[in-house]
Amino acid sequence: MAIFFTAYRILLLVFISIFCLNYFWNQDKFHSINHTQVTNQTNKCYVPEWNQLETSSITNTFWNSMSRLLWMALDLSKENNQNYTSVVLIGAYVYPEYISITLNSQYMVKQRLYCRYFDCKKQEISGSSWQGIVFPESVIHCPRRIGAEFVSVSKYKTEDFPNPMRLKFRNFEKPIHEFAICVAPLYGQEPKWIQIVEFIEHHKMEGATLFYFHIGNISDYDRKVLDEYENNGDIEVKVLQEKYERPFYAWQLIEIQDCHMRAKYHSKWTAFIDIDERISTQNGRISDFLNSEDNRKVAEIQMPILNIAKYEDAPMWYQNEGQVRREMISNKYDKTPGPSWNASKAIIRPEKIGIMSIHYAIALEHGYVSLRSDSSKIVLRHYRSTQHRENLNDWDKEHTLFGSPLPQEFSSELTKKVFEKTKSIYEKVPVNCSTIPEDMWKSRQFPDPCQRMLLTW
């Protein structure tokens, strides 16, 4: 009898699973849409060829659907945080077969929202709305719509919606970057200018070609560095701001989800690390390491952490070359207890990961695996402050430390690059007022620049 009931329960579970999967796989049929008028609604907008695709689902394989159902059933993405906030859009990304919208919400996982679609003039495309499910937390995936250039969300089909956001193009046949980095939100009172420059130049030497920055809080002085790199096309910057205050770690959870979506189909490999961390390979560059580990089934590579004691804050302002050489974090600190797996970080294939967290991937797409790399190949150097921490101040006193500097040749080249960049940004050359044609200021009735200069910064 016990065997009979066990078999019965198994069959019942299988039946329920098949029913749920069938519902999820075909949920576009439960929300039928008349798309015949879509092109007429957008006839006043130019619709490029890439935007003439219509899809009816957010999953393209049986196993993707099954995996998504399983992750939901196991509650693998549930934060239940900041539940007093209204829904605000953080980002919107269009991929080859679907769209992802990232939200500021941290309490809506598995709740239903309508995807809303708008043309180039922010006019809603008639009959295009689609009801989807927030999953993972802070993310909703939506089908593609012909002519959609802006998107938004709402709880009900006819409800008001947040201001539509323009879709960021990620409809690439293959990623245009081999390796990029998602940087945790910048916050706190410590100056960031020299850390940002050293972070970017270090990883450019290791092979990174793009950096995704999310700003929580930063000074105008530090922002000049980001503006310079953004103007050069080295970084993308997203400002995280809204009327609802939240602790820094809550913003980091949102940043993880947004940057995961931002990197999909844009970067083949993407690391998720903080501004005080540096990826360091033992032989060659990161791209060489990734190619050596990649067997087309690897979705995540976890890196051991090398905590390095950091005893002081960075300087407030740029002064000169000597100061830069002294204050560079990699020149100033190298004492460590050795590699550890506690609070390690990961490099991922973004489109092969179902759910990402701060330190590792929570869920991988079907058929892919996660690897742990050896510290002889790659480590994450974490210049970990011994002060101003939320926990474990003076952590270094619990360990025996030894020196572990960067290779001399790498360090020398890095120092040169950091100084050149900081000098070009912060060292101003006084204007020679005598070279300004008189007609330029007299015709505008401006004062003589040799007597009174009207500076712009």
From TrEMBL:
One of its GO terms (molecular function) is glycosyltransferase activity. It is a single-pass membrane protein. The keyword Membrane applies. Keywords: Glycosyltransferase, Membrane, Transferase, Transmembrane, Transmembrane helix. GO terms for cellular component: cytoplasm; membrane. The chain crosses the membrane at residues 7-25. Coiled coil: none annotated. Pfam families: Glyco_transf_92. InterPro entries: Glyco_transf_92. It is found in: Membrane. Its EC number is 2.4.1.-. Belongs to the glycosyltransferase 92 family. This is Glycosyltransferase family 92 protein.
